Amino acid sequence: MQTYLEAFSHLPTMLTPRLKLRPVRMSDAQDLYEYSSDPEVARHVLWDAHHSIHQTRAYIRFLLRQYRNAAPSTFVIEMRDTGKVVGTIGFMWVQTENRSAEVGYSLSRAYWNHGLMTEALSAILAFAFDTLKLNRIEAQHECDNPASGHVMTKCGMRHEGTLRQRIYNKGRYADVDLYAILRSDYHPQ
Q1: Model pTM score
Q2: CA-to-CA distance for 181 and 160, rounded, in angstroms?
Q3: Alpha-helix runs per DSSP H in 69-180
Q4: How far apart are the first and last CA of the chain?
């Protein structure tokens, strides 16, 4: 069993039929900025749309520090056929004592509704259960972003409830739907 420290300090590269999930590199800045600057992409996440490439580079430096500190972190989502980075997916937190974690993700609007995030989330769940040996994985989305819930459901996650005004995001309180999958529920496709 790989330890959390080993896993997060040396994130693996994972391949799916159309995607490569890998650690971020500074050379990804332009691709990341391209979709991170889109207010529609940033609408339902906890970060604001990037206003400059410098902001994106600062985010990359943050992720690189997370890797160095072996902290739960993020993979970039790269298209295997073009090498273009179109999103991110990763761990918001991990509780080692409970063997649980939360995952989060974002994707370029040009790639919405093509099943790519379902593919990426399936790979992350496999990593969480098979490599990290976690027991419970959670994810949440703002209730007015039901497409994110569809991704979670397609990956075998179950809706566990609605948390009223759970977050304050972009000047408003937002209700969120909480989903989770247990090791005993997990059946890779």
Answers
A1: 0.94
A2: 10
A3: 116-126, 146-154
A4: 23
The angle subtended at Cα 92 by Cα 27 and Cα 118, nearest 5°, is 75
Over the stretch 89-99, which tens digit does the pLDDT of each residue have?
Answer: 999 999 999 99
Q: Is the dihedral of CA 153, 158, 163, 166 positive or negative?
A: negative
3-state secondary structure of 174: strand
Cβ atoms of residues 144 and 44 within 8 Å: yes
Neighbours of 41 (CB within 10 A): 21
Tokens coding 110: 């040009």
Question: Distance between CA atoms of 177 and 142, rounded to whole angstroms?
Answer: 6
pLDDT tens, residue by residue, 18-42? 999 999 999 999 999 999 999 988 8
- Comparing CA positions, the residue from 94, 45, 100 lying closest to residue 71 is 94
